[in-house]
Amino acid sequence: MTADRVEPFGARLAQRVGERGPLCVGIDPHRELLTGWGVGDDLDGLRRFTDAVVDALAGTVAVLKPQMAFYERFGARGIAVLEEAVAAVRAAGCLVLLDAKRGDIGSTMAAYADYLRAGHPMQVDAMTVSPYLGPESLAPAARTAKDAGGGLFVLARTSNPDAGTFQHARVGERSVAQAVVDTVGGWNDGGVGSWGSSTGSFGVVVGATLADLDVDLDGLRGPILAPGLGAQGGSVADLRRLFGPDRAVVPTVSRDVLAAGPDATALRAAADRWTAELAG
Ligand SMILES: O=C(O)c1cc(=O)[nH]c(=O)n1[C@@H]1O[C@H](COP(=O)(O)O)[C@@H](O)[C@H]1O
């Protein structure tokens, strides 16, 4: 299949969500979780943890989101563990959202976006990116994503407590967060912000921990990645309060599911509980 015939990420995401529900589980091998699982805080522990999560969940959830930082801790061998896992996840029909939060000048962004291209040793379906260098800096990554049928999730209103310090700052009439949402909405030409074959391929990150939704998402025309559930205090009720029933929201949970491991049945049960609550 040539790159230009790959189905756009938004359509692929909507299809998986239709089949499996919207839950994304983060693969975050924290030191505390490795220890809690009774595996070492070392390369072998990293591999056992990763394999167990992939075996338990890649056939069940729509999206798995490995966090690059936890693999980079172990150098090239850690990245190799992730590379194998990414291939296994995709082979199981689950989408991979690489949580790398990259952001740089345009020419370097173009290189980061190669993660989305067929033939990359660690090809993924989508990645998280940071807009701190300005909206134009991300444009090359958006072009690659369009070409390759990949997706981007741009940090807009993140889940950490002091996120508003920068994200509420004003750019003319708008907040920085709103400027990010508007930029991403511009990339989603012809897309929609609900689930379906036209769901946009470009999303934003908006935390489930927000007291109020202080950005207007009506022009986004793409999905919303909503972290902050469980360990950071966000709930399904918060998702409903913030986003309502119709938007294409991908709730993402890491520690609250991962703490149930290493038993595969327990991991699946923990993910299933979120899926059931999200559907209820
Ligand atoms: O982009 C993200 O995934 C992200 C954005 C954000 O605003 N807040 C946030 O917590 N995350 C990530 O989502 C995950 C949350 O993990 P838990 O708090 O354990 O569910 C971590 O991997 C974070 O890096």
UniProtKB/TrEMBL annotation:
Q: What are the recorded GO MF terms, alphabetically?
A: orotidine-5'-phosphate decarboxylase activity
Q: Where is the Orotidine 5'-phosphate decarboxylase domain?
A: 22-270
Matching entries from InterPro entries are given as: Aldolase_TIM (IPR013785), OMPdecase_AS (IPR018089), OMPdecase_type-2 (IPR011995), OMPdeCOase_dom (IPR001754), RibuloseP-bd_barrel (IPR011060)
Coiled-coil region: none
Ordered alphabetically, the record's keywords are: Decarboxylase, Lyase, Pyrimidine biosynthesis
Q: Which GO terms describe its biological process?
A: 'de novo' pyrimidine nucleobase biosynthetic process; 'de novo' UMP biosynthetic process
Q: What class of enzyme is it?
A: lyase
Q: Catalysed reaction(s)?
A: orotidine 5'-phosphate + H(+) = UMP + CO2
Task: Please name the pathway.
Answer: Pyrimidine metabolism; UMP biosynthesis via de novo pathway; UMP from orotate: step 2/2
- The answer to whether UniProt assigns keyword Lyase to this entry is yes
What EC number(s) is this enzyme filed under? 4.1.1.23
Superkingdom of origin: Bacteria
Q: Which residues form the active site?
A: K101
- Similarity comment: family membership: Belongs to the OMP decarboxylase family. Type 2 subfamily.
**What protein name applies here?**
Orotidine 5'-phosphate decarboxylase
Query: What species is given as this protein's source?
Result: Blastococcus tunisiensis
